[in-house]
Write a structure and sequence with these properties.
This protein is an alpha/beta fold and 409 residues long. It has 3 domains: 132 residues, FAD/NAD(P)-binding domain, CATH 3.50.50.60; 121 residues, FAD/NAD(P)-binding domain (3-Layer(bba) Sandwich), CATH 3.50.50.60; 83 residues, no CATH class. The protein contains 11 helices and 26 strands. α1 crosses α8. The longest helix has 23 residues. The structure holds flavin-adenine dinucleotide (FAD).
Length: 409
């Protein structure tokens, strides 16, 4: 049992939202950060692991180093129980963590919607380890079975970006067939419709079949059945079907049921427990925001500022989250920049995605000491050798980098 000091802050979950929250407290505060995973993982680029375009080390950095630098304590543990009324959380090893204010930033979990076989046979893409596993399984499959079929379930951002990476590495393999299944009638349902048309046009001559407007009803080791009765051969199934709320939200009474996100007010304070703030993907605002990393960062900072205000007895402030453009990569075939109804496409936009990755990783882990400096150098070299070096040896491809096509207004 730990002793309790007044003004203690507990942050559960330390990836985008939790780390942004932790970084917003000075070392004068007593802040404990607990997370089940030792690494900050840059999830927006994990699809690049599938092709080997990026390696796992480039996409993660030790949380302990970042949190030590902030002057807070880090505990690598899973929280299995949160008791807002009792102001305490219990970890898997049985530790009790007391708090006056708690920030919950635990993201979501992979959702297989109870579809038989999906959890056993579908490979999720929710972490660096997942991305590496897909890379390993795909490499072995293509080597052992030249005539093979890969099925991607989900035609949202994760599914489309995974498709791009499979094609980046294997599109010249004559025996590979890729199927993408999506329950909506278009790909990327939340984006302008022009993207769906553009992606289908771009992949017309490649070995890809889209099964849109189709639901998966069963996944087996080597096949997948759709609601229409069609059976697709599946030597490998990549499952990007979506995210479900973390069960801890319902256990703590922050959500109204097991499949609900935590309801918060405009200041990210729980609708149920005043001493709890929820940030990032786990939070459901009165007007929900897209579950994106840049909003998670804004929410983490806002939750921390309001936690401090609550400790001082001051009035809470509402979250200010401005919409940002999103970048969607289709491997090395194309990249799309979307802002509201505006969508543009161009291969050169891949450079912008890389710059955003490099900038955010360096911001999270400033190169102030040796391990961080070394990791920065590794990331920069990887960006240079993957994106710039091939162009130097293929100068005729340089002009196409400057071409940006307007897809919709
Ligand atoms: C494949 C993929 C591609 C994406 N692409 C983009 C993109 O291009 N742009 C964009 O903006 N966003 C993108 N996103 C979404 C973005 O990654 C999420 O919005 C963001 O990660 C949410 O941050 P978070 O801090 O709320 O949750 P997470 O990043 O999920 O972090 C949650 C943390 O909580 C910890 N945790 C969970 N449960 C417990 C527990 N019980 N005890 C202790 N710790 C716990 C986890 O270990 C984890 O570290 C993508 C996501 C995926 C999966």
């Amino acid at each position: 049992m730990t002793t309790h000091q007044a003004g203690e802050v507990l942050i559960i979950g330390a990836n985008f939202a939790g780390l942004a929250a932790a970084g917003s407290f000075s070392s004068a505060h007593k802040v404990t950060v607990v997370d089940a995973s030792p690494y900050l993982e840059f999830l927006p680029n994990i699809h690049e692991l599938i092709s080997g375009f990026k390696s796992p080390e480039l996409l993660r950095t030790p949380k302990k180093r970042l949190i030590d630098r902030m002057g807070h304590s880090f505990l690598e543990e899973k929280v299995i129980e949160l008791d807002p009324g009792g102001c305490r959380a219990i970890t898997e090893s049985g530790k009790t963590l007391n708090f006056d204010v708690c920030i919950v930033a635990i993201g979501g979990v992979n959702d297989t919607y109870g579809i038989p076989g999906a959890a056993e046979h579908g490979l999720p893409l929710k972490s660096v380890a997942d991305g590496r596993e897909i890379y390993n399984r795909l490499s072995a499959l293509v080597q052992d079975k030249p005539e093979c079929s890969v099925v991607i379930v989900g035609g949202g951002l994760e599914g489309v970006e995974s498709l791009g990476e499979v094609l980046r590495r294997y599109r010249s393999n004559k025996g590979l067939r890729v199927h993408l299944v999506e329950k909506e009638t278009v790909l990327l349902i939340e984006e302008p419709k022009a993207l769906d048309r553009e992606i289908r046009k771009r992949l017309r001559k490649l070995p890809v079949t889209f099964h849109t407007g189709q639901r998966v009803v069963e996944v087996e080791k080597d096949k997948l059945t759709l609601a229409s009765g069609e059976v697709l051969p599946a030597d490998l199934t990549i499952w990007t079907g979506g995210a479900a709320p973390n069960p801890l939200l319902a256990q703590a009474g922050l959500a109204s049921g097991p499949n609900r996100w935590a309801m918060v007010n405009k200041s990210l304070q729980s609708e149920v427990h005043e001493n709890i703030f929820v940030a990032g993907d786990a939070a459901e605002l009165p007007r929900p925001l897209a579950k994106q990393a840049y909003y998670a960062l804004d929410m983490g900072r806002c939750a921390a500022a309001n936690a401090r205000r609550r400790l001082r007895g001051k009035t809470l402030q509402p979250l200010c989250a401005l919409p940002r453009p999103s970048l969607i990569a289709l491997g090395d075939l194309d990249t799309y920049l979307v802002f509201g109804r505006l969508a543009v496409a161009g291969k050169g936009l891949a450079g912008l995605k890389e710059v955003i990755f490099q900038y955010n990783m360096s911001k999270q882990d400033p190169p102030l000491a040796w391990p961080s400096l070394f990791e920065l150098q590794e990331r920069l070299w990887s960006g240079f050798s993957n994106l710039i070096l091939p162009r130097i040896f293929s100068p005729f491809s340089i002009p196409e980098l400057g071409v940006v096509r307007l897809l919709s207004l």
